[in-house]
Structures are given as C-alpha cells and as structure tokens.
Design brief:
Largest sheet: 6 strands, mixed
Number of strands: 13
Shape: globular
Radius of gyration: 20 Å
Strand content: 15-25%
Helix content: 25-40%
Strand order of the largest sheet: 1-2-3-4-5-6
Number of helices: 11
Length: about 325
Amino acid sequence: NAWALEQLLVFSNVSATIRTIVVKLEDGTLWVNGPQWPTGEFCKLLDELGPVAHVVVPCTALEHKAPVQAFLKKYPNVKSVWTVPGQYSVFGSIGLDVASSKMPYKVDGVFPVGAPKPSDPSPPWASEFDYRTLYVSLPENAGPVSEAIFLHKPSKTLITTDAVVYVPDSPPPIFETYFDKATVGAEGFWPKSVLQAVFLPLRQGSGEGDVGAWPGYGAVQGRLLRAPILRAFADARAPGAVRSWVDDVSKMGEFDRIITGHFASPIKATPADFRSAFAYLDGPAADPPIVCEDWSLLDGLNDVIATNKLGAPVEPGFDFKAGCKKVS
C-alpha cells in the first residue's frame, strides 16, 4: 500500500533521483507526499493507484516544493493540503500557522514543530500516521529549514524526504531516461554522480573498482547516512534541534523500513539504524568513515558563508566532521 514515483533531478553537474511517496489510506484514497511535476506519465501511474485526496509538502527544500502548485492545478479537488512551517521563496511563504499563509494554493494545515500536542490541529489522516517536524529558523539565514518525517503505522514504514539516504552500488534505471546507456555504464559514472550529489570532492584513489578508485564514494555507499551537505550546512548550525528531532523520530514507534526522497528505497532499517545515521551529533566516538580531507569542499563553502556573512555561523564548539578518518 505504498509506492514511490520517481523522476530525475538534473541541474549543473548534479543528477539524482527524486521521488513522490504515495500511500493508499484505509478508505482507498491516496496520501501524496512531496508531489513532483505532473507529467503525463506521472499522472497516469498515480491515477492507476486510486483517487488523490491528501497532499503533503514535507520540507522547505526547493526541489520538493517547486512542483506543488502545478500538481494541485492538475488535482484541484484534493481534500487537504498540509505543509511544514517556514516555507519561503517565489513559490510562496507560510509561517507557523495557516493564518500566515501566502502560498499560491489553499493550505489546510501546518505541521506543529516537534511532536504534535493534543491542542494542535490534526490532519484528517492522522489516525494512520504519526509525524515529527524539524524547524530551525536563524535570523542570519535566508529562511527556515524544516522537514517532517512520517511513520505510517499500519505498514511500519518511516517516510522521510532528505533526512537520510542510502546510496546503492549502481545507478537506478531512471538515469537512462536522460543519459544514454553508454554514459551510464561508463567507468566512474556512478561514483562521480554520487559524490557531486552529496558535495564531496572527486578525489581519485589507487585502488580497483568503483570503491577503490573513488574513496569518497566508498565512504558513503551501502549504508544509511545523513548526507554530508546537510551535516555541514543544517546540522552544523543547529545540532541541538536536529538531535531532538532524531530522538523524537526514533521514539515514535516501531518501523522496519524507510522510504526516502532520494537514492535507494525502500531501505531495511529500524529506529536504532535511523539514530545511528546521526551518531556524529554526539561527538568523535561516532564512526563516519569519510576522510577528513574530503570535507574540504563543504568546509570551503562554510568559510565563504562566514566571510561574506551570507548566513548563520556554524555553532561554536560543534564539529560536524567529528570522527572523520585521517590518512597519512
């Protein structure tokens, strides 16, 4: 009763899967999380699953909110639209409640920060889901960072957007809808695609195979992890808020799989696995095998932000690279 509809996100030198996650509710209608662009193929596949009733805008990241207005024009009769707080940009804005909405479509609810309280408004599908929302608003930043994670209780499925990823050992078939088969099959294509998507440098090693030739790829492939770019930008500025969110999600209830917005899904994982992906928040006792020098790109971008006062500073005393692997 859960599906993922994938599209390929391509900009500059970055290419990655991006997906809409769909759950069929007990009444037979569809809960649509992070709707992507309503192409003919997308809508045909979606319509085969059932009637669209509820739409969720799960985070403030541009690529996940940009298609929503077009999607709702295609499906104008949905019963509810709920969003995370803190939306901003040319695609509309909303604060912590519906009254603040300046979105270009009707919003029926805003997820409360953290865990919902009995006094908070509740979405019409709340009997089948639990949810927890990260919200970080720092005055120096362009806008808030916000993401909601959902636990679909009947299927024991955790539904995330950007919170965690699992990098597979080969490119998914959707890459051949944009790149030709020879390009996708070329040596180094997939490791370079992964490294560019997570903002690690294209450092080559002397080993054999993809893992040996691209050590940075070997450090992130085949395990549940927090994307390095989010560690360096979001978590480094609000580690306490992220830690509280992770704790709340881990205690929501049991799950045995995760469906994410990018890379591979579904992922076999438990609450303990989810928590382990954020172990670096608790210091160098964690085990992130990313080589220290491979953080240079993100370190440099943080330096540019700090020097030019383009955003909030990294929290003093917090090392998002804690436990990185040193090599001689």
